[in-house]
Amino acid sequence: MQIEQFVTAGKFRLDGGEWDVENNVYVLAATPGADAEVYIVDPAHDAAEVYRRVGDRRVRGVILTHAHNDHCELAPEVATHYGVDVYLHPGDQELWEESNGSAPYQPLAHGQTLHLGEEEITVLHTPGHSPGCVVLSIPSEAALLSGDTLFNGGPGATGRKYSDFDTIINSLREVVFALPADYRVLPGHGDSTTISAESARLDEYIARGY
Ligand SMILES: [Fe+2]
């Protein structure tokens, strides 16, 4: 599987505040080439750039790691453009409604597997940053799309509504850090890291409280 990444810029809004933010958008492709099938993960801020990056390839669906507005509010438009479904964990229903009202999505479940050709994308539910956060494990590439659950240097923020620090630490300990140590971690914002680099710092995260 090819994992393509690009950055778009826009606004993150929650609890009445608004912040400038850059998001990592991922395109997962079954095989290299113009005729490959792809999933789009967290298309953010700039639909034209998403369409440009996807090109002529056939889109299978739009997968969301969670329903904060910066990750999800473009998803219905992109999904409609390609005639495909949005996939989201229903734990983020309330956040989804705040951005996208009654727009439809297909519910993701912990342990669910999506397929691209012979390769698999495994959905792991990792609440904490939001109740419906998921990460996407791609065993064939030894890679994890970690959304806002794990960044280079620490867990996702838990200071705003629907977030909980103890819950994200539990998700890291029980789910994310149970993955192989050599996995690359490709987050929703900022630089990549590895499971081994971050799991070694779990006690540090807990001690500082973020
Ligand atoms: Fe987020």
Automatic annotation (TrEMBL):
It comes from the Bacteria. InterPro entries: MBL_Glyoxalase_II (IPR051453), Metallo-B-lactamas (IPR001279), RibonucZ/Hydroxyglut_hydro (IPR036866). One of its GO terms (molecular function) is hydrolase activity. Keywords: Hydrolase. The keyword Hydrolase applies. Gene3D superfamilies: Ribonuclease Z/Hydroxyacylglutathione hydrolase-like. Residues 22-189 form the Metallo-beta-lactamase domain. This is MBL fold metallo-hydrolase. The lineage of its organism: Bacteria, Bacillati, Actinomycetota, Actinomycetes, Mycobacteriales.
